[in-house]
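Design job #97: recover the sequence.
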């Protein structure tokens, strides 16, 4: 009963040698097939080394002891929550103004396409049809705050001191986490 996927093919690629040098961080490509001859594949990433597994994590091109990795992940989660909160604030305060500041909705769409910001649909028609705010609001997941800042910078809108302060503090926090990662990486 039921469809069963069987592993057809596996391909391992070494991404980075581990700290002890006996193994490493690998990408494992797996291809599956089923009774109806359909197939799908996926990539898995993991540490293959008895000595380093559990002891180190490979993250953002650094080997970092697991306890420090956990600190980094915790701080990154806090930053991302702050960013999401600030995104909502900025969106609520400025989005109507952004719309007014662009010559037309088409100009807004084109600006986003050219700068590869937000997740614009393939055609202008779809953009109109789906209700423009959808593409900038949280409906399709929370967009990047950097994208919104780009839109704001393109207009004559000025951020309040409070908003600028929050942005700067997030930026500073990111830099600190990045330094922490570099300082505690072993390789
Ligand atoms: Zn190792």
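Job complete. Output follows.
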């Amino acid at each position: 009963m039921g469809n069963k996927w069987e592993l057809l093919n596996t391909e391992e690629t070494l991404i980075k040698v581990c700290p002890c040098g006996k193994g490493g961080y690998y990408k494992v490509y797996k291809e599956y097939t089923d009774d109806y001859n359909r197939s799908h594949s996926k990539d898995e990433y993991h540490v293959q080394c008895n000595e380093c597994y559990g002891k180190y994590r490979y993250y953002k091109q650094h080997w970092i002891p697991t306890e420090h990795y956990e600190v980094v992940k915790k701080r990154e989660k806090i930053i991302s929550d702050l960013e999401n909160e600030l995104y909502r604030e900025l969106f609520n305060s400025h989005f109507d103004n952004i719309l007014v500041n662009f010559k037309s909705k088409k100009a807004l769409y084109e600006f986003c396409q050219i700068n590869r910001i937000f997740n614009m649909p393939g055609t202008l028609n779809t953009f109109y049809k789906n209700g423009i705010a959808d593409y900038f609001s949280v409906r399709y997941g929370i967009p990047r705050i950097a994208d919104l800042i780009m839109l704001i910078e393109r207009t004559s809108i000025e951020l309040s001191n409070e908003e600028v302060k929050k942005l700067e503090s997030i930026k500073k926090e990111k830099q600190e986490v990045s330094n922490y990662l570099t300082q505690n990486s072993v390789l």
